[in-house]
Amino acid sequence: ARSAWTTPFAPSMCGGVPWYEGAHGYEFVCVHDVRTVVVLFLFWAVLAVLGLCVLTAWTARNRQPKCKAQIAVSVCLLGSTVAIYGLFAEGRRRSHGPYSIAGQYYRSQRQRIEAAAKSVVVHWAWAQLHGIASVTQVPPDEMYEHMVLIRLRSLAALQRRFGRDDALIEKDKCRMVEWLRDNGLRQPPLLAQWRGPNATSSKMAALNALVANAAPRSPVYLKCCHLTQGRADSVLKVSSATWLDTHETKVHAWVRAKLAQRADDVGRPWRTVANELTQSITPGIFVQAAAKQSPLDDVLLMVESNRDKMGSREGVSTGSSGGRGTGGSGGARGSGGGSASASGIGDHSGISSGSGRGGGGDGGDSGGGSGGSGDNVGGDAAISAEDGVLASSPPSDSMSGRARSSVRMATFEIKVEVLWGVAYIGMLNIDGSQMGSAWLRGDVDGTFRLHSFLNPFEGVPLLGRLVPDLDQPSFEWIEREGHVACAFTLAEATACAAAIDQIRVDVIVSQGRKHACVVNEISISSASRMGGHSSFLAKLWAEPYLNGWVTTCGDHNSQPVHSAMANRNAGRTGAVPISTGHNLKNSSRPLSQQGGCRHPSGR
């Protein structure tokens, strides 16, 4: 129950009191009084009633009965508008304050995060956050974006000075999926990949053959290696080989257009520095299978679909065995006994595909991508491509937010923010649209609490209870079947493999498949809305650096993070239970390519 988090509200005012207090800046002294909002609401209501009375008396005295009703209605509407706006403003202020649910959760997790930060080992590249002390000088609502800006500026400085490209672990999706595979982290099966700016006719023919072989009954997704921004529409759904035959011209035009497009973080504070990090990425396309989706009732929940008639923005899949494809000559033997075939087409480019268990081979020239995804997890957590594929409904022609009177299949994703190896919050996302529900850690390890973190009336008496913590009661299966625990464990394992201080891991979950969660993608520059949690998450991210708790490994000569491999057992669901998070980090050996990356205590 939430009562376990509740701290009594003290009758004090916030005027002029700084957000930060003390040398390290994380003691709150600004307390929001619950009576404040009640007084404000009564003030607005009384003001509206008095105004109505005055205008009514004036119209009666001046014998203007015709306009009396109009004036009365106008005053009521004006008063109601002011009152509702005031409630929204006060609700938002309280949801971001120190005694909000987000603030109470921050205090309940602070000791856990401190212990984790003191015990994990962070890669040297992530710890070069120059100017981090400036985070204490920015408004709370801007703290998280400021931390991301500091991170990307530091990575850009390392790239200019030492030629390091650690940012490619996220900014280059092809590198990202290869890194996930190499570290044994469950992800959608990678069917094929090619690099190169030109979409030649031979490449298109090879793509057609691959889709015809890999998707006779279910969809596959084409994804761009070099485009990571949501607004770039960098994912294209291919429903089936028949669908591809019908829309072949459009698909080929889409591929050519995307290969010519460059990444642009427009609208973000870090746009300039992020664009600098992505300019050197070679354009490319890779292919993944579709996931088993879960039922969604559109009558009860009107999801803002980000899909167009060509396909969906979020390509997802489950499974751990590679798909099969063809592609000409240049075959290579996979390390696990499976085989892979590839075709080198054009300059330093090619299409490659793998099949069977074990790692797929490298195809083509230097641009040939990896083949099958290999045996990523094993045991009862392992799922095959045949097992995990379910034909999804065709793209919706309805406009965003329009209700439909049927149950359809949708992709359920939990976006998990991980700090110092500890999963902090998991936010629900459906078909690429962010919901209002999030899961927080409970008082007991392995338990969770729901929080409607986008509730505009949080902290407002009575009204705050009108918004349910779970967007739809039918979503209870997500926690009941153990998917939240699966997502948190997998996200922590991913952060562990990256030896990173903060990361967002997007995990796909499927109803009825408890241990089948898979990583869809990761982000080191997240722009997801987190409501009142964003400033507190930024505090927990920055505090270990400001207090000197961070232990690093490697240096400027170390191998890039996206090329390093950690313990393959790190991603096995059930191998390490949800606990304090940092135990998971300590259970994995240091990055094999960074010899000597150990905690001073010997862990």
UniProtKB/TrEMBL annotation:
Residues 580-595 have a biased composition (Polar residues). InterPro entries: Diverse_Func_Domain-Protein. Residues 306-381, 571-603 are annotated as: Disordered. Keywords: Membrane, Transmembrane, Transmembrane helix. The keyword Transmembrane applies. The chain crosses the membrane at residues 37-59, 71-88. Residues 340-352 have a biased composition (Low complexity). It comes from the Eukaryota. Residues 320-339, 353-377 have a biased composition (Gly residues). PANTHER family: FIBROIN HEAVY CHAIN FIB-H LIKE PROTEIN, PER-HEXAMER REPEAT PROTEIN 5-RELATED. This is Uncharacterized protein. It comes from Chrysotila carterae.
